[in-house]
Amino acid sequence: MKLRLDLAPLAAAVADAARALPSRPPVAVLSAIKLDATGSQLTVAAFDYEVSAEATTDADVSSGGTVLVPGRLLVDITRTLKGKHPIDIELEGSSLVSITSGTIRYTLHTLPQEEYPSLPQPGEASGTVTGSDLHQAVAQVAAAAGHDDTLPVLTGIQMTVTDGKLTLAATDRYRFAVRTIDWKPTSDTTSGQALVPAKALLDASKMFAEAEQADLALPTSQGVLGMSGPSRSTTMRALDGQLPDYKTLWPTEFTATAIVNRDELIAAVKRVALVAERSTPVRLHFSPNVLSLTAGSSDDAQARDRIDAQLDTVTGAPLTMAFNPGFLLDGLNALGAHSIQFGIVGPTNPTLLNGLDEDGNALGDDALTYLIMPVRLSS
């Protein structure tokens, strides 16, 4: 194998493929990145039995071939190299690969190809989405996904296709995020569902953030979700199970609604949360024109702040609620709107957060909605 290519596309391809490198490889060969030179292209790939990633870039291939090289080392090399010198990659003998750029030359030992598993293929596309829409939606709902590996279902993002829409949802039992984007079917599959690991899906969506179109292949009997674009592709194994139906959890009637500027609320929560040790809650005291925030206790440090707010209640009385500050900030950051509307049922009932534009209008049915469970305050 012998080829030459520019540094920037090589570094980008290696970085994208490396998203599938395992942090703790179950076998040594899975720590490798696969380089496959053929025709006028170089394909860079990685696989950890659960997730695969492939990135293709143009190259001047003098001699084709395939090699496995240490993955993390290759990432470090392509990230460190600078300048406009082209990159020359050449197989020397049967077990050494040289990487040359200007005056710097690296020699890497290869890993045995016969031990490397075959990468799963994405499969026939079920439909397409815009890459930027997919990445934004995944990033928004991933904020609500769980991190407890003993409850794998709650670490996933559920993707549901129906009526020309792709709905993404995630929950960790304390909050629930839902976002919908447009979906264009490309097969007879007009509906379907898959639960995939949130981290893997978030990493994969970054590969397609600039793509005008990303093809999605919903899992079949193999239980593998496939995504592909012009020069990138990835697969990930779906999780068993499914999330609760969010439509049964969403409140439809509210005893109060409150509207607060998002940036002001984020800043205020961060200020008072400085004394909220060990994830103790931040208390929100809503009154007709003011939202007061407090945290801490009389036995420890305390903080108080206030910002403007609009409160509309059935009873007209002020109300107090408490939230985990981290969970609240996750939702506020994910919503990304000018203002936030709190749909309040009661101080111990789930509260629905929606984004509003500068004119106070809802962002639409497809925009992110974030349901958060208040913390019960002791009397």
Number of domains: 3
Label the CATH architecture of the largest domain.
Roll
Low-confidence residue ranges: none
Main sheet attributes: strand count, strand direction, barrel closure: 9 strands, antiparallel
Q: Would you state the CATH class of the largest domain?
A: Alpha Beta
Strand tally is 27
The helix count comes to: 6
CATH-derived topology of the largest domain: DNA Polymerase III, Chain A, domain 2
Shape: elongated
Helical content band: 10-25%
Q: What's the overall average pLDDT, rounded?
A: 92
Explain the layout of strands and helices.
Layout: E1 2-5, H1 7-17, E2 32-38, E3 41-47, E4 51-58, E5 60-63, E6 65-70, H2 71-80, E7 87-92, E8 96-101, E9 104-109, E10 127-129, H3 131-142, E11 156-162, E12 165-171, E13 175-182, E14 184-185, E15 192-197, H4 198-207, E16 214-217, E17 224-228, E18 232-237, E19 256-261, H5 262-272, E20 282-286, E21 290-296, E22 302-308, E23 310-313, E24 319-323, H6 325-335, E25 339-344, E26 351-356, E27 369-372
Antiparallel strand pairs: 1-5, 1-7, 2-3, 2-6, 3-4, 4-18, 7-8, 8-9, 10-14, 10-16, 11-12, 11-15, 12-13, 13-27, 16-17, 17-18, 19-23, 19-25, 20-21, 20-24, 21-22, 25-26, 26-27
Family: Belongs to the beta sliding clamp family.
Domain DNA polymerase III beta sliding clamp central: 129-245
GO molecular function: 3'-5' exonuclease activity; DNA binding; DNA-directed DNA polymerase activity
